[in-house]
Amino acid sequence: MSFDWSVVWQHRDALIAGTATTILLTVATMAIAVPCGIIVAILRLYGWAPMRALATAYVEFFRNLPLILVVFWAFYVPPILTGLGLSPLATGLAALALNVTAYNAETFRAGINSIRRGQVEAAMVLGMNRVQALRRVVVPQAVRRILPVLASTWVSLFKDTSLVSVIAVTELAYVSMQIRAQSFRVLEMLTAMAAIYWLLGYPQAKLVDWIQRRFAITE
Amino acid sequence: MNADTSPLRPMAAGAKIIRYRGVIKRYGGFQALGGVDLDVHAGEVVCLIGPSGSGKSTLLRCTNGLEAIDGGDIEFEGAMLPRDERALRAVRTRMGMVFQSFELFPHLTALENVAEGPRTVLRNDLVEANRRATAMLAKVGLADKASSYPSALSGGQQQRVAIARALAMEPDVMLFDEPTSALDPETIGEVLSVMKKLADEGMTMVVVTHEMTFARRVGDWVAVFDTGRIVEQGPPTQIFDAPTTERTRDFLSHLGWTG
Fold first, then answer.
1. What's the mean per-residue pLDDT of chain B?
2. Which residues face B222 on adjacent strands?
3. DSSP label at A134?
4. Burial letters for B130-142: b for 16+ Cβ neighbours within 10 Å, e otherwise?
5. Do A126 and B95 make contact, defined as CB atoms within 8 angstroms?
6. Given CB atoms, is B208 within the 8 Å cutoff of chain A?
7. Cα separation of B150 and B161, whole Å?
8. Mean pLDDT of all residues in chain A?
9. At B2, is the pLDDT very low, low, confident or very high (cuts 50, 70, 90)?
C-alpha cells in the first residue's frame, strides 16, 4: 500500500480557500443567528400572544428538523415555488442561520429564565422599572450563563457547516471531497480534512472551556 | 378597643406611616389574608409573628405592591397605595425591603450592590452613590468587605449588605421578611443586632419574624397571625406574658416560649 501525501500540498490553494469559506460560513451564520436569536427570544418571553406563538412555532420547527433536510429544502424548494434561486453559498448560509437562530433563541430564553424571580423583586423594591431590572440585574447575570452555551454552539456550528457541502458550497468538506474524487487519494484527503477541522476546532473547544470557567457564577 | 389611645403604645401619638384596613388577598381559591387591620406609626417596630403560611409575609409583600390586594386598603404616609406601576415605584423608593434569601446581586461587589439603587433609581453620580454605599456598609459593620462579592460572604454578612442596600435609598420604613430564617444560628445574632441598632435610631420597621426574643425585646407592637387574620395584637408584654387569645397561647407554647 502506498500513500501519496503530495496531493494535499498540490491542492493547498483550494483547501485554503475551502477553509476560508468554512470560517466565513461560521462567522456569518453567528452574525445573523445571535441578533435574530435575541429577537426571537424576546418575542417568546415578552411578545403579545400571537407573536409568542409564532416564535415558539419557529423554534420548535427548526430545532426538530435535521439540518441536512433544511439545507436540501432551502436549495430545492424555493426555486420550484418562486422560480428564483440563490447561490449555493447564500442558500447554505440561510439554512444554517435558520437552524442556529432557533437554538440561540432557546439559549437566550433559558438564560433569562434561569435568573430567579427574587432577583427581579430585589431590583423592583429599590424602585427600578422592568427595563432597568432587566438591564442592570437580569441581563448581566444571564449573559454569564448564555456565553458558554453560545460558545458550544459555535464549535458545533463550525463542524456542521460541512453539511452544506451537499449543495455544492465550496467549503472545506466539499473541496476535500472534490479533490478526492479527482485524485482517488481517499485516505490522504480524508485525513487532511480531518486534520484541518481538528486543528481549527481544538483551540475553539479549549476557548469554550476557558469561557465556561471564566464566567462561572458562584452563588 | 382603640389601640391608638392605649398607654401601652407610646408611639401611637406619632404619624401613621402605614395603615392596613380590611386587607384581603387571595391566590386562586386560597384566601391568604382575610381582612387585616393594623397600624404602623412613625418610629415603631411592629413585629408580625405566627405559624408559617399564616399571611405575615403576604401582608409585607402587599405593603410595597409586590402583590396586589383583592380587598380593603393600604395607606402609606396618608395616601392610598397606588396601583399604577409608575406611582408604585415612587412609593417603593421610600420603603426598604429585606428578603429571607438576601437576593444580593451576585455579579456585583458588596459596594456595588449597595450603590445600585442610588445609581440607577435616584440617578446619583458614581462618586455620590459610592459615598453613600460606603457609609451604609460601615453602618452595618462591613466597611472592610466593600470589594467582596456576595459569594465570598457568610449568610449573616450577605444579609447585612442587603440591609445596607435597602438603607442606601434612605427609606421612611423598612420591611423585613424573615431576615434571619435562612441563616446559620451563629450568624443570626449579627443581623439582629444591626436591626436593633436601626430600631434604636428610630427607624420605622415592620418585621416578619420567628425570633420571639427579638419581637419581645425590640418590638413596640406585635401582631399574631393565624390563617390570614390577626388573632391578637398588642405590646410585647401583653402578647408574650399575658396573651388574651387561645390561638396566641397555642402558638407560643408550640414554640416552647416560656417568657
1. 93
2. B47, B234
3. I
4. bebbbebbebbeb
5. no
6. no
7. 9
8. 92
9. very low
Note whether B57 and B102 are within 8 A (CB): no
B186/A172 Cα distance (integer angstroms): 63
Task: Identify the H or E element spanning A21.
Answer: helix A12-46
Q: Which helix (H) or strand (E) holds A129?
A: none
Question: Rounded to a whole number, what is the distance in angstroms from the first to the last CA of chain B?
Answer: 25
- Across the beta sheet with B45-49, the strand order is B95-98, B173-177, B204-208, B45-49, B221-226, B229-234
A137 vs chain B: nearest CA distance in angstroms? 7
Q: B255 CB contacts (<8 Å, ≥6 apart)?
A: B210, B212
- Going by pLDDT thresholds of 50, 70 and 90, the confidence category of residue A82 is confident
Cβ(B146)–Cβ(B110) below 8 Å: yes
pLDDT score of A180 more than 50: yes
pTM: 0.85
Report which DSSP code applies to B93. T
Q: Which of A207-216, B39-48, B150-159, B238-247 has the lowest mean pLDDT?
A: A207-216
Report which residue type is found at A121: E
Instruction: Establish if B101 touches chain A: CB-CB under 8 angstroms.
Output: yes
Task: Check residue B1 and give its pLDDT.
Answer: 41
Q: Indicate the range of A127-141, B5-19, B131-145 predicted with least confidence.
A: B5-19
Burial class (CB in 10 A: 0-12, 13-18, 19+), A177: middle
What average pLDDT does the segment B103-118 reach? Answer: 97
Q: The C-alpha cell of B113 is what? A: 450592590
CB-closest option in A127, A128, A141 to B106: A141
Nearest to A97 by CA among A30, A170, A160: A30
Are B169 and A126 in contact (CB < 8 Å)?
Answer: yes
**Above 90 in pLDDT, residue B5?**
no
Q: Which amino acid is at A84?
A: L
Q: Which helix (H) or strand (E) holds B64?
A: none
Q: What is the pLDDT of residue B259?
A: 52
**What ipTM, to 2 d.p.?**
0.92
- The alpha carbon of B178 is separated from its chain's Cα centroid by a whole number of angstroms, namely 8
Beta strands in A30-148 (DSSP E): none
Residue type, A146: I
**Residue B41, beta-bridge partner list:** B16
* Contact assignment for B121 to A119 by CB distance below 8 Å: no
Q: What is the DSSP letter of B74?
A: E
- What counts of helices (H) and strands (E) characterise chain A? 10, 0
Whose grid coordinates read 474524487? A181
